[in-house]
Amino acid sequence: MNNSLNKIFFIAGKIILLTLFFFALTAQASDEWPGKKTFVIGFAQDNMANDWRMAQVMDVKKELEKYPFITFFYTDGKGQAAKQVLDIEDMIQQKVDILITSPMDAQAMTPVISSAFQKGIPVVLIGRTITTQDYTCFIAPDNRQIARQAAIYMAQKMEGKGRILMLKGVDGATSTIYRTQGFLQQIKSYGGIEIAVVKTANYLRNDAIMVMEEVLEKDQKFDAIYAQSDSMATGARMALKMAGKDPKKFLMVGIDYISEARQAIRIGEQSASFT
Description:
Blueprint: E1 5-10, E2 19-23, E3 39-45, H1 51-64, E4 70-76, H2 81-94, E5 98-101, H3 106-118, E6 123-126, E7 137-139, H4 143-157, E8 161-168, H5 174-187, E9 192-200, H6 205-217, E10 224-227, H7 230-242, E11 251-255, H8 259-266, E12 272-274
Parallel strand pairs: 3-4, 3-5, 5-6, 6-7, 8-9, 8-10, 10-11, 11-12
Antiparallel strand pairs: 1-2
Helix pairs in contact: 2-3, 4-5, 6-7
C-alpha cells in the first residue's frame, strides 16, 4: 500500500469538520482494495472533557463507521501535552495509516507530529497547528476573524465603553493565541473598552466555574464576558447563578455554538456565539 492519500473528503457540519478518507494504492496492492485490506486511522485528541473536542471525535467516528474496511480508534490526552505526545508515539509504533490530532501545545507537540509525518504517516491537524509544515493538511476555522467579529459585536452592544472579562482557552494552543490576538487587535480601536480581567480556563466548563468563583470572590468588576469557547461560557453562567447573580445582566459571547449556547441564547442568558 502507498501511504499517500489519493483523496481527502471533508465532511463539514455547522461548525467545522470532519474527515472521510479514501486511500491510493499502488498497482501491486490494488487488488486488495477494499475487501482484503483494513486501514487504521488514529485520532489523538487532547481533552475529551471538552464538549467541542468530544464532538470532533464522535463526528469522525460516525462517518468512518460507514466503511467496514476502516478501523478507527481514539485516545484522550486528558489536557496533558505529555500524554498526548505518548499517545501519538504509540500510534506511530502501531503504524496507523492516518494520524488525526488537535495538538494541545504547538511547541511541545511539533517534534512527535513531525516524526509521524517524516515516517510516511499522513497527518491531519484539526483546529490547531504546529510550528513546522510537517503535516498533510490542516482543517480549521479562521480564529482571528472569529475573534474580531466577536469584538465588533461586543463593542457595538457595549456602545464603546465598559469592562470585559476574557476567559482564555489552553495556553500555547494556536486557537487560544489567535482568539486572543484577533480580539485584542479589534477591541483596541474602542478607547472606552477595557479588558479588565483575563483568566485561563482551558476551554473547560469546570475550570471556568473555578476561575469565575475567584473573580467574584475578589469582587473584580466586569460588564461583559468574552469566552473563547461556549463550554467556558456555560461554566461562567453556572458560577454566576451559584453566586446569586443573573447571567442576563451581563453581555456574554462565546465561540462554537454548542447546544448549551443555543439554549442559553434562546432564554437570554447568552448574547451570541460565533463559529
